[in-house]
What does this fold into?
Amino acid sequence: MRRYKITVVGAGNVGATTAQRLAERDYADIVLVDIIEGMPQGKALDLLEAGPIEGYDTYLIGANDYEPTKDSDIVIITSGVARKPGMSRDELLSTNAKIVEDVTRQVAAASPDAIIIVVSNPLDAMVHVAHKVSGFPANRVMGMAGVLDSARFRTFVAQELGVSIEDVHAFVLGGHGDQMVPLPRYATVAGIPITEILPKDTIDRIVQRTRDGGAEIVQLLKQGSAYYAPSSSIAEMVDAIVLDKKRVMPVAAYLNGEYGISGIFMGVLAVIGAGGVEKIWEINLTDEERSQLMASAEAVKKLIQAL
It folds into this structure.
């Protein structure tokens, strides 16, 4: 058995691909949970049998209940209904809130000391549900969104300039939805702000494509939604926790006065390590950027009120 134990709830595309990425890192044993009988067991066995070829000793099991998840260090909640073409994240609210509530109640009982990473949409509201139901301290509950949105932002900048993605750094704040807040002023290529390299209309186009990033993939796939980039984003967050990296990354974290916002989970820059969300970095914003962030916060609050 590995030192760490990770539970992934939901064995669909996002959950199964996340389990694969984590298995290949070879630092934790993994439990894959789903309500569909045989599905998590089959995928876990398939991943287990890839070990001799890929060179990992990760032990994986699938389950339809939460007994095998007992004493997990990290629980990743991916379960819920996926978006369909034309459906907004907000329309998923009622259905997925019930699913996340049920899942959280069971994982919290089985693993009272775990760190929870929520991936289900609408993301910010689902993190709120998980925090409320689990009763965990806020530093041990977070949402995956900002890492994914930032990766999309970086991808589009690199494509536009024809440069390596390794030299592009950028991040996105705010809620994981239409009112997310990409910050071009802080986006750089080899340390140079893109505001000094690209014209405003091009930047505006990239920002809008970032906001529409998930919907663009949903529209192309016709059925289902993104899972390769989301699973990579989850794995990067797990790396930071398991390896205590103290990574500074955008995650949906609980705000208690930062940016003048309190009582909600929303995308902000935070230090992520073994303690979960160890510190929130409050950066300087222009009046326009702050206005956009406040508008995003209001959108998140409306979702929470609707719950």
